[in-house]
Amino acid sequence: MDFISRHVGPNQPEEHEMLSALGYDSVEALVDTAMPAGIKATQPINLPAPLSEQQAQERLRELAGKNVVLKAFYGQGFSSTITPPVIRRGVVEDAGWYTAYTPYQPEISQGRLEALLNFQTMVQDLTGLPVSNASLLDEASAAGEAIGLMSRAVKKGRRVLLDARLHPQVIAVASERARAIDLEVEVADLTQGVVGEDLVGVVIAYPGTEGDIFDPRPIIEAIHERGGLAAVDADILALTLLESPGELGADIAIGTTQRFGVPLFYGGPHAAYMAVTDKLKRQMPGRLVGVSVDAEGYPAYRLALQTREQHIRRERATSNICTAQALLAVTASMYAVYHGPQGLVEIARAVHGRAASFAASISASGATVKHENFFDTVAVEVAGRAEEIKRSLAERGYLVRTIGADTVVVSFGEDTEDEDLRALVEAFGGSVTAGGERLPAGLARTTEFLTHETFNTIHSETQMMRYIRSLGDKDLALDRTMIPLGSCTMKLNPTAGLEAITWPGFANVHPFTPDEYTEGWRELIAELSDWLVELTGYAAVSVQPNSGATGELAGLLAIRRYHLSNGEAERDVCLIPASAHGTNAASATLANLRVAVVKTAPDGSIDLADLDAKLEQHAGRVAAIMVTYPSTHGVYEDTVQTVAEKVHAAGGQVYIDGANMNALAGIGRPGDFGGDVSHLNLHKTFTIPHGGGGPGVGPIGVAEHLVPFLPADPQVSWESAAQDAPAEGGVPISSTTYGSAGVLPISWAYIAMSGAEGLKKATQSAVLTANYLAHELKDSFPVLYTGNEGLVGHECILDLNGIEKESGVSATDVAKRLVDYGFHAPTLAFPVAGTLMVEPTESEDLGELQRFIEAMRSIRAEIDEIASGKVEYEKSVIHNAPYTAYSVTREQWPYEFTREQAAYPVDGLIHAKYFPPVRRIDEAYGDRNLVCACPPPEAFDIEPEAVEEIDVVSTEENKK
C-alpha cells in the first residue's frame, strides 16, 4: 500500500458513504463546488513521483550519509551534549509527547504542563530570578524579545547596548529586532564601562563568545543608575558553577537550554529561556505555566497571565509567540530531573576540567591563551595559523572555530573523551597536562538550586522511564484520539520522516559546520525548498523562520524593507481582516507597522466596502494586507483576488497567511491568486508534530521582487551588525541560516512520499471530512459560516451563542464535557466568541469521525435537558464536567445525575475510557495567586471532607 493510502483516514467505501450523505458523486465534485475556480493552480503542480516509505528512508539515509559529522568543539551557543536514551526514546521519539497540542485545555494537559513547570523551576533556580516562561525559540531571538520587553518597561529610552562579547548571531538578530521597533543599537565593549544616556537597557554576555568571564555587576549598576534594565545572556550549564544573574542584580536572564540533552540538529529546534524579576512578569513574552486549583481544591497546572494573549490582545500583545519549543523544553527539563543538581554540577566540572586541562597544555607548549578565566571555551592566539589548525583538526574529525587569522576557539562539551583532548592539544604542537580551575573566584556560585524533590529523587533509568510514562498518561494526544482543532491542523505525523531526525548524520551536525561537510543537509533543504516553491507558486523560499509567527514577522519585514528600498518609508499601515489569525496583528506591530482592522461581511468574508474605506483613509501609507486563506471562518472566500487587486492598486503588498494551507496543498497556490508573500506552517500542513506547543517551522515564500529581502544569514560579525541597517537586503530572523533544520526531514519525507497527487488527495479528504462533520452536526450545533452551496473549507465554526442564551451552557462547558468522552476540544472562542472551530483533517477515518459526532450529539441531548427545564444548569452533568476516576468512585457523590452519566455517557467508553487527572480548573485563582514553580508535595494532600464545599468556577464567571 502506498503512503498516502495509509496517511488518509477514510478508505474508498467510507469516502463514498460521506459523499452520499453530502449529495456528491466524487470528492473532486465536492471540492470544485466548495473552492472558487480562480483559486486553483493555473498549471499542473510538478513534483517528483511519490516514494514508498522504504524508498524515502533509503533516500534519507543516503542524504545523512553525505554529511561528514565532525565532533563539535565549535561552541558559539551550540554545544555537544548527550541525550539520555531513556529521554530520547521516551520523549523525543514517543508519539504521546510529540503529537500533543499546546496545553490550552489544561485538564487534559497536566503531564506536559508539569514537565514545562519543571523547566520553569529549573530556569528560575539557575538564573536566580523568580519568574520564567515555558521556553522561547532560540537564543538570538530571545535576546530580541528581551530588548522588546525592556522597551515596553522603560518608556523613555531609545537606545540599547549590546555586549560586543555576545555571539555574532545574537548580535545580528537582536540588532535588527531592535531597529525594527525604532531603537538605536550600540555594540560596545562593556568591559570598558557604560557611556551615554537615554538607554532602555543592555544585554550582557556571561560568559562571552570567546569564553571569557567578567563580573557584570558594575555594568548592571551603571545601567540601573540611568534608569535602564539589564539582561544577562547566560550559559545554563555554567550557572551551576557561576553566581546567578539574579544574585548579580540582573532584571532579565536569557539563553539556550540546548546543552541540556538536546541534539545539535544543525541549528534547531532548541528551547531558549527567559527569566525576569517579579515586577516584569506581566511584560514577559511567551507562555507561562502556573499553578491553580481544580474544582475539588487539588493543585492543577495551567497556562497563566498571557494565555493565547497574542490572539486576544493582538497588536497590544507582549509578543507574537504562538509556537515555542515545548518538546525541546520538556527534553531539557527531563535532563535536569534525570541528572539532578549534583549530576549537573559533575557534568559542568568535567566540562570545565577538560577546558582547563586544554588551556594548561596549550600554555605549556608556548602558545598564548587569550583569557585567564573561562568555563568551557578557550581562545588561543596562533599568529596567522588559525585556518591551518582548523583544517588539520577537521581532517582528524574535529570542528573548531576561528576568529580572523590569529585566533582559534575551542569549546568543550559533555561528550569529550581523553582521546579528543589529546588530538586537540596535539594540533597546537603540545601534549596533555593537568590544569587547575579557571573560574573567577569572585563569581563562584553560593546559592543552592534544584532543591525540589522532583530533581532529587528520579535518577535511575527505571524511575525516569516511569516518570515520563506517568506524565504522558495524564494527557490526551493524537496517539489516543482525534484532536479536532480548527486553525491548527492536527494530522498524522508520519513515522518514516520522524524516525530520521535523531539519526547521527542529521542530529549531530553543528550549524556552523563548513558547507563542504554538510552536503546531505544542504541537498535535503534545497529539495524541500524547491518543492515548497512549486506548491506555493512563489519565486523562492527561506526555511530560516523557526515558527509560524516568526515566518509572519520575516514576511512583513521583507515587505517593509522592500518599501524602504523604493523610498516609500511612509508605507507603515498593515490592513488585517477581523477574520485573520490573531498572531497577524502582533507580528505587524513587531515589524513596526500600524494595524488597521478590516470588517467582516455578514457571510464571514472580508467586507469589500470597508476595505475600500480603509484604503482611502490610509492612501499612500498602505504597506500590506494580511489575508488568511481560507479564512479562519472556515470558508473559501471568492473575493480574495479582488482584495489583492485593490491592495496592489493602492501600492500595497499582499501577505497570504499560509496557516490553512491544508485546504490548498496540491490544488491552489497563493502565488497564483494574488499573494506576494506567504508563510507556511510545516507543523500543520506538512506534518512536523506540534510537540505540546512546538517545535514549529514557518518558512516564507516570496514573489520575485521580494527575493532580495528574504532572511539574511545570521552568521555575521558584530562589526557589520553594528552599522546602520541598509535599506537593501533582508535581515536575519533566527540564530542559524536554516532555522530549525533538525525537523525538516519530516516535511521532506511527507512531500516525497505524497507527490503532487497525494497532496491533492490529502487536501480533498480534509475538505470532505470537514463538510461531513458540518453536515452531521448542523442540526445540533449551527454552522456559523458557509460558502458556496452551503459548504465549508477544511474546518467549520459551530455557533453556541444561541444555545447559551437558551440554556446557559457555554462553549467552554462543551469543551470540558468533551473530555469525558475522550476528546480534545475544538478551538474555543476563536475567531468568534461563543463558538467551537472544528477541523478533523484528512487523517481521521469514518469511525473516529462518527465517534466525535456521537459525542457531540450526546452533549446536545444533555443541553436539551437543561433548556427544557428538566435539569438545572448549575446541577447539570455538563456544568460540573469533567470527572476524574477518583471523583466517580469515592464514597461521596454530591450530584443528582448518576456516576455512569458522568463517566460513561456512551457505550463506546466502556472498554476505552480516558480519565483526566484533575477536575475543571479555576483559571482566575491561578492568576490571582501566581505560582510558576513546582509546588511542594504537601500541596497535593487535601482532606476528602473538604471536597463538598468547593464548587466549579466557570470560565465565564472568571472573566466577569
How would you characterize this protein structure?
- This protein is of the alpha/beta class and 960 residues long.
- Among the domains are: 109-335, Type I PLP-dependent aspartate aminotransferase-like (Major domain) (Aspartate Aminotransferase, domain 2, 3-Layer(aba) Sandwich); 515-756, Aspartate Aminotransferase, domain 2; 759-959, Alpha-Beta Complex (Aspartate Aminotransferase, domain 1), CATH 3.90.1150.10.
- The strands form 7 sheets. It has a 7-stranded mixed beta sheet with strand order 2-8-7-6-5-3-4, sandwiched between helices.
- It is globular and about 85 Å long.
Spatial gap, N to C terminus: 55 Å
CATH class category label of the domain at 515-756:
Alpha Beta
Fourth-level CATH superfamily of the domain at 515-756: Type I PLP-dependent aspartate aminotransferase-like (Major domain)
CATH architecture label name of the domain at 515-756: 3-Layer(aba) Sandwich
Q: What is the global morphology? A: globular
Please list the strands of the largest sheet in the order they lie side by side. 2-8-7-6-5-3-4
EC number: 1.4.4.2
Modified residues (N6-(pyridoxal phosphate)lysine): 684
Subunit structure: The glycine cleavage system is composed of four proteins: P, T, L and H.
Organism: Corynebacterium liangguodongii
List keywords for this structure.
single chain; 960 residues; alpha/beta; Aspartate Aminotransferase, domain 2; Aspartate Aminotransferase, domain 1; 7-stranded mixed beta sheet; 4-stranded antiparallel beta sheet; 33 helices; 37% helix; 11% strand; globular; disordered C terminus; pyridoxal phosphate; oxidoreductase; glycine dehydrogenase (decarboxylating) activity; PyrdxlP-dep_Trfase_major
